């Protein structure tokens, strides 16, 4: 695998994470638990779609095969999407959406802090813009986790269940293979394994304050980075790609 | 209060209005003025919130990344506008959640246009172009409304909405100059939305119960028919420019008046939809109701947490 | 069903360094932190601000508009508080 191939693959993985999660959050639009929160979730969805757009654009340039950001976002088959399984999980109730966000935001925070120092200038620039957004996302999901966990008995039980359901997707955030090794060696991305301990500590601190517990079971899933997804993704892509698939080659 | 004192207050109130002095929340105002404002502003707020739904229907199917972001930002603005307007309602002593419950119980109304379905992507263009276009016609004069908080909310709304109509027109224009299939999609959409858009201005002046009083109070600055005419005059040339046909065989420019004459609106359809029998009335209210009910445990949890924390802080200090 | 809704907060925004915070509207939030978060999302979507104040509406004390006369009109007759009240000889600059 060349450096260029590795970089393309890495950008796709991260762009897919943002796109798919942004898509999931956009499903809340118009249906939030209160007006103020409807607006907040949409802001986060917009940030994620913006991040995805920047990453796809760069990926398209790196690939240099005449595809653009929309081709990459809309016109691949299911097995070619490389997002982690966590982000494609369904919204569930508002608490599940917040826990999904909590697990994701804390990882992104640590990752993008490091990506700001990437030897790849374009990635460093994207990271510098993105980190500001993530700092807000992490505040939002952390504060909600605390309120729901330490709120009423009902809210506690609901989010505790979501923590149990979603924690099995967190290890995949740290998945690394040849793609990562090539880019780590080049100083383009960090070795994320070095902040796994910090990630666990940060998550635990929020969950402690929220009176929530991680399950003891260590059972974990992965596959997203290789394009092996949960059944949810196919339906998401069916909607996402509807226009591009029904009216091939048209401009909108 | 004795009658002559009330008369004096009412006169002072109307003098202020006549002199274009804004009425502010704690000022004296006649009950009927307050009630009219609560009804109108909350109805306006509900329209923004229910108005999110027909467009949210296409967010997950938007055809490219740019359109997806624009559509999301637009719908988010609508939630924001609803919120600004609910804020204005609350300055009148009405409770926002109570007015929302009135919407859910079918007591409060919202703009009927949102009871029509969005069936194709072209509808995202047409809704922006026609529905937001008509809304702007209604809203620009409201920036000068006699009630301060409403006028200020509308200034903000109008400023933010200026991109809404443009993005809609951009979507339609792109289709109109696209493939025959795309152009047909745009024309079909215009055919479906044109008449409902004209209905947005409400009944003819002769049949409008609230207009005269609202104009005297300077809540309203133009009659329904005046605004409708302004909208037709502005929109017809836009349709011509991009090669779409307005679905009205009676539409004709009148050299004498300098305005477009247009055909009769189907008022039976208008009243049907107002009364709750439009294509999506049930679904729209049900969706809003569900959002509120599903969110109850979240709002309660946040309240419970705030109380617990306040108690803990008290203990600590 | 518990009908207790989130309290109402008034929002004040400083649009740029050097200007005062200005009232922009209100919103609902369960506590002060959330009120600030919500204010950011609702009232600064177009970079309208760099600093936010929120205060629970119930804590705002307002003057009574029917007393506007006694409160503010006496100041109208005190023109000597304004610089234009004074005559400055021609040719004097920077005063």
What's the structural blueprint in terms of helices and strands?
The complex is a heterotrimer of chains A (252), B (317) and C (95).
Chain A: H1 3-26, H2 35-63, H3 69-74, H4 85-88, H5 94-115, H6 121-149, H7 153-166, H8 178-185, H9 196-209, H10 232-240, H11 242-246
Chain B: H1 3-18, H2 31-50, H3 52-56, H4 65-90, H5 96-104, H6 122-142, H7 148-176, H8 180-199, H9 211-216, H10 224-241, E1 252-254, E2 259-261, H11 267-277, H12 281-316
Antiparallel strand pairs in B: 1-2
Helix pairs in contact in B: 2-4, 4-7, 6-7, 6-8, 6-10
Chain C: E1 8-14, E2 21-28, H1 32-43, E3 51-56, H2 68-72
Antiparallel strand pairs in C: 1-2, 1-3
How would you characterize the overall build of this protein?
Chain B: This is 1,2-phenylacetyl-CoA epoxidase subunit A. Chain B: Pfam families: PaaA_PaaC (PF05138). Chain B: One of its GO terms (molecular function) is phenylacetyl-CoA 1,2-epoxidase activity. The complex is a heterotrimer of chains A (252), B (317) and C (95). Chain A is mainly α and 252 residues long. Chain A is 65% helix and 0% strand. Chain A has one domain: Ferritin, core subunit, four-helix bundle (Ferritin, Up-down Bundle). Chain A is globular, with a radius of gyration of 18 Å. The termini of chain A are far apart. The model of chain A has no long low-confidence stretch (mean pLDDT 97). By secondary structure, chain B is an all-alpha fold. In chain B, 68% of the residues lie in helices and 2% in strands. Chain B has twelve helices and two strands. Chain B has a two-stranded antiparallel ribbon. In chain B, helix 2 packs antiparallel against helix 4 (65-90), helix 4 (65-90) packs antiparallel against helix 7 (148-176) and helix 6 packs parallel to helix 8 (180-199). The radius of gyration of chain B is 22 Å and the shape is globular. The termini of chain B are far apart. Chain C is of the alpha+beta class and 95 residues long. Chain C has one domain (8-85): Ubiquitin-like (UB roll), CATH 3.10.20. Helix content of chain C is 18%, strand content 22%. Chain C has helices spanning 32-43, 68-72, and strands at 8-14, 21-28, 51-56. In chain C, strands 2-1-3 form a three-stranded antiparallel sheet, with helices on one face. In chain C, strand 1 (8-14) and strand 2 (21-28) form a beta hairpin. Chains in contact: A-B, A-C, B-C. At the B-C interface, helix 4, helix 7 and helix 12 of B face strand 2 of C.
């Amino acid at each position: 695998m060349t450096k260029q191939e590795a970089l393309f693959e890495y950008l796709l993985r991260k762009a897919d994470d943002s796109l798919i999660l942004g898509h999931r959050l956009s499903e809340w639009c118009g249906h939030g638990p209160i007006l103020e929160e409807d607006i907040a979730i949409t802001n986060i969805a917009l940030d994620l779609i913006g991040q995805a757009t920047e990453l796809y654009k760069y990926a398209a340039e790196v690939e240099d095969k005449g595809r653009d950001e929309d081709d990459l976002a809309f016109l691949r088959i299911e097995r070619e999407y490389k997002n982690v399984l966590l982000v494609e999980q369904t919204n569930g109730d508002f608490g599940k959406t917040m826990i999904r966000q909590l697990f994701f935001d804390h990882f992104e925070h640590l990752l993008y802090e490091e990506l700001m120092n990437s030897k790849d200038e374009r990635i460093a620039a994207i990271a510098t813009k993105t980190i500001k957004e993530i700092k807000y996302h992490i505040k939002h999901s952390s504060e909600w986790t605390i309120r729901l966990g330490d709120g009423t008995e009902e809210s506690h039980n609901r989010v505790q269940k979501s923590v149990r359901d979603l924690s099995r997707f967190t290890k995949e955030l740290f998945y690394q293979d040849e793609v990562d090794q090539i880019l780590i060696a080049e100083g383009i991305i960090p070795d994320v394994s070095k902040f796994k301990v910090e990630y666990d500590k940060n998550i635990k601190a929020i969950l402690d304050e929220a009176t929530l517990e991680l399950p003891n079971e260590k059972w974990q899933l992965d596959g997203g980075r290789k394009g092996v997804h949960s059944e949810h993704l196919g339906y998401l892509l069916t909607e996402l790609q509807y226009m591009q698939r029904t009216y091939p080659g048209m401009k909108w | 209060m004795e009658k002559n004192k009330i008369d004096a207050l009412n006169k002072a109130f109307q003098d202020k209005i006549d002199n274009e002095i804004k009425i502010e929340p704690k000022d004296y105002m006649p009950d009927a003025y307050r009630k009219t404002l609560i009804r109108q502003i909350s109805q306006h707020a509900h329209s923004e919130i229910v108005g999110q739904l027909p467009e949210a229907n296409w967010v997950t199917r938007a055809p490219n990344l740019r359109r997806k972001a624009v559509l999301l930002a637009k719908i988010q603005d609508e939630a924001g506008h609803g919120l600004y307007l609910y804020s204005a309602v609350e300055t009148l002593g009405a409770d926002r959640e109570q007015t929302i419950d009135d919407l859910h119980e079918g007591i409060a109304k919202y703009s009927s246009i949102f009871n029509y379905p969005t069936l194709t992507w072209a509808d995202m263009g047409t809704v922006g172009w026609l529905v937001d276009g008509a809304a702007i016609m209604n809203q620009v004069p409201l920036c000068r409304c006699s009630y301060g908080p409403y006028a200020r909310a509308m200034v903000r709304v109008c400023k933010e909405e200026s991109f809404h109509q443009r993005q809609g027109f951009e979507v339609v224009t792109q289709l109109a100059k696209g493939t025959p299939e795309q152009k047909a999609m745009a024309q079909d959409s215009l055919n479906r939305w044109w008449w409902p858009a004209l209905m947005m201005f409400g009944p003819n002046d002769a049949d409008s119960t609230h207009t005269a009083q609202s104009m005297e109070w300077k809540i309203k600055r133009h009659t329904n028919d005046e605004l409708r005419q302004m909208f037709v005059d502005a929109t017809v040339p836009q349709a011509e420019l991009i090669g779409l046909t307005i679905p009205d065989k009676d539409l004709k420019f009148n050299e004498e008046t300098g305005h477009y004459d247009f055909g009769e609106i189907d008022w039976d359809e208008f009243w049907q939809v107002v009364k709750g029998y439009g294509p999506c009335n049930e679904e729209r209210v049900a969706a809003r109701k569900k959002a509120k009910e599903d969110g109850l445990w979240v709002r309660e949890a946040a309240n419970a947490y705030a109380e617990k924390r306040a108690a803990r802080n008290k203990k600590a200090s | 069903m518990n009908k207790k809704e989130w309290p109402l907060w008034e929002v004040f925004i400083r649009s740029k360094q050097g200007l005062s915070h200005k009232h922009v509207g209100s919103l609902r939030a369960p506590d002060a932190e959330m009120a600030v978060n919500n204010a950011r999302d609702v009232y600064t979507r177009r970079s309208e601000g760099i600093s936010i104040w929120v205060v629970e509406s119930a804590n705002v004390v307002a003057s009574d508009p029917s007393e506007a006369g006694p409160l503010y009109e006496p100041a109208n007759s005190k023109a000597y508080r304004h610089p234009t009240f004074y005559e400055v000889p021609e040719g004097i600059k920077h005063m």
